[in-house]
Design brief:
6 helices, Arc Repressor Mutant, subunit A, two-stranded antiparallel sheet, globular
Length: about 170
């Protein structure tokens, strides 16, 4: 297997210190993080009444949307770090919201699925999540929302060119 050579960021042009500026309020990474943090913090407060964290909710809704996922697949769908995800899954299993069983495709592998209780709590929260989506996107037309989703996916994919292997 070939090892990937880490790609480096393009070198910045040399500019005198007094001319070098970066407006944080206009920086796309900052704007994305700021919007995401505000939405996540607000929704997290709502999730407390269901006894879930935002990461736990993402696991539940990802498994509701696509049952029987392996941990690695779930990590991709939730953008959770594998170690955090493993602890989250263990906690949800201990609370009876998830089960782990043998994969139908590979008897050596384990799939994760929601229990009936996990499905029930997820279905109770989905309308609330949809409300948060509607509020966040109010005043933005349907075509613009579709374009925004496409652009966010593209930004995510584009960033792979700067990813470095550890």
């Amino acid at each position: 297997m070939k090892s990937k050579k880490p790609k480096s960021a393009p070198e910045a042009a040399t500019v005198p210190g007094d001319l070098l500026d970066h407006d944080l309020e206009s920086a796309i990474p900052y704007l994305l993080a700021r919007a995401g943090m505000r939405m996540g913090q607000s929704f997290s407060r709502e999730l407390k009444r269901f006894g879930l964290t935002l990461t736990e909710w993402r696991v539940c809704v990802a498994l509701h949307h696509k049952p029987r996922q392996r941990l690695a697949e779930l990590a991709l769908h939730t953008s959770a770090e594998p170690s955090t995800l493993s602890r989250t899954v263990d906690g949800l299993m201990n609370r009876g919201l998830l089960i782990r069983d043998r994969s139908d495709e590979d008897a050596r592998a384990l799939d994760l699925s929601l229990t009936d209780e996990g499905v029930a709590i997820t279905q109770r929260i989905i309308p609330l999540a949809q409300l948060y989506d509607r509020v966040a996107l109010s005043g933005i037309g349907g075509a613009q929302v579709d374009l925004l989703r496409d652009m966010l996916r593209r930004i995510y994919q584009n960033m792979a060119t700067l990813d470095h292997e550890s």
